[in-house]
Every structure is written in structure tokens, then in C-alpha cells.
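Q: Start with the shorter request: fold the first protein.
A: Done. Sequence, then structure:
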Amino acid sequence: MTSEFTRTGARRSGDDYQDIIALDELVEMLKHPERYKWIRVEADEAGSLDDVVVLRSNDQILAKQVKFSTDPDRYDDPWTLKKLLEKKPGKSGKPTKSLLEKWGSSFGNLRNQKSINEVSVVSNRKASADLQVVLSPNGLIDLDKIEDPIVRVEIFNQLGDESKAREFFLQFHF
């Protein structure tokens, strides 16, 4: 299936989507300035949770990673647990970190700097059936609902151990 987007068009559309998410926070800041110290877009110090980072007036961090799909309704491209855990080969041939590893590491670094209010991934892509089953209504993954032992062990390995995985999934919204 051919995309209607050029590579540059897809990139620009993703940036527009990220800007909308940032603008939502900026509007809230304008309505309630007492709740905010600052908002940053592309906050490199937040690692892989850098797209929109907010420091609330109570010194708690809110970080949003924005993921845009040019074809969010494509039946064969939803978010899956497998995609979150997937390690693709890098330029050197060695596997890169998975999305979950990147987000888990960045979460740990942010948590070491400030108290966490919320971290999340915001996307226009749909969740697969296997991901929907383990998501609670508030967007948190319930580890106890992941029945595949191989997936559970891989999650624990990528996030450090079971206790770190549980801590991460208590605060990471999808």
C-alpha cells in the first residue's frame, strides 16, 4: 500500500501532530498559570520522553512522547506488545533498544531528577487486540493480564526486573 505522504510530508505531519499535543498543554498553562513552571518541546534532557515535557508548580514532571502514523487505521500496523519490545538491527548490525527500553530508561532518569506526575505515549495509531486486553480504562498496562510468559519475561528483562516494570507501568499511560 502506497502512502499519500512523501517522506518530508510524513515528517511535517508528525511535527504538526506533536505541535497540537504541545499546544493543548500550552492552552492549559494559559488558563491555569499557577499550575506550571515551564513547558518544553523537544526537551533533550528527557531522553526518549522528550516531545512535550512539563514541570508543574509542585515540581512534578509530566512527559509525553508523541508517535504519529500516516495511516493509523491500517489493519496490519497497530501498536502491539511485540512492537513495544522489538529490537531492530542498527547500522552496525547490533540490535537497537526497543521502544519500551528507551521509555523505561528515560522514565528512570526523569524519576531520579524530579517526582513524576505522569509519563505517556500519545499516538493516533490504534492498539491491537493483545494490547487492548492488558490496558486498563485509564491507559495503564496491567502486567498481571499479560498471560504470555515469554512476553512477561522480556518486559522484565528490558525494564530491569519485575519491580521496575511494575513501577513503570503504574505511571506510564498509553
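Q: Next, the second protein, separately.
A: Sequence, then structure:
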Amino acid sequence: MDLATLDALKLSDSTGTQHQLGDLWAEQPVVLVFLRHFGCIHCREHAVQLAARYDEIKALGAELVAVGTGNERYAAAFVRDEQIPYLVLVDDDARAARAVSVHKSSFIGLFHPKSWSATVDAWKRGHRIHKAGARVTQMGATFVLGPGDTVRYAHIDRDGADHAPIDAVFDVLHARS
């Protein structure tokens, strides 16, 4: 992870407002979640699960920020459709993803048999695949950063259905409080 590069980046939110990434975790911890893309069924489900616990994250003195691929229109639809209460940023050129060493999958890897049942389960729970952004092969990741230049937790997703266990993220947040 190149935290200095990540700190210096500015990304837009769904309204076009620019956010300096390092400012987000300068004084408080931030759970930074990289989504594969705004249309990914597994990422949407994970984002909704995190949204359900957003008040708990805030109560622990932390913030939650998601970063995804697609343009501002995709991000706005994602926020609206999934009722996301936290900041969502657009990384369509992969600058942030490269800074944190989020890797890509092959197309074959995206359709790994392990993810099939997870896709069916997410579908049964009401989540749907939406239009993808430009980089559908990007994997996701979750980090807990800050305050300052501290990486408290890192999880790089192994496949499209793999996400950081939410309880592990909360363990890190609780250890700080």
C-alpha cells in the first residue's frame, strides 16, 4: 500500500464534489471499502450490510467511505437505489485502487464456482446486478485507516463474493475505543 499516494488523491463523490482522501482519516479512523464496481451484486449487498451498521461505526468515532468504479451517475444511482448514508467516491481511473494494491481478476476468476452460490444467495436476498463501470475485473478491498498515517486493518478480496468480515472490522474499531 502506498499510503502517501492515497493520502494525496482527490476523488469526486456522486455530486461531483472533490474530497482529499488523506483529510478523511487525518483525525479519525475511516473504514475505506473498495467496491468492484457500483453494479456488482456482492458489493451492493456488502454496502447495504455496512449501511445497516453505519450508526455503530459513527458511535465508535469512525467514518465509513466506499470507493467504486463507474462515473458520478453510477455512484448517484448506487447511493439512491441502496439508500447509502455514507460517502461514496468514484475511482474510475483506478488511481486509488492502484495506490492500495487492489488487484484485478481474470474474467474466468470472476465466475469462479465458489461465487456462484453466493450470487444466487444474494439474489434471493433481493440484491441485483446493475450496469457495471469500466473496470469489472477489479477486485474489492477493505481497510481501516487513521487517524493519521496508520493502517489498522487490510483485507484484499480474493474473488467477487469475498469481502472483509464485518465483525473483524468492528474488532479493530473497538480496539481503538
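Q: Describe the second briefly.
A: The chain has a mean pLDDT of 83. The two ends are 25 Å apart (CA to CA).
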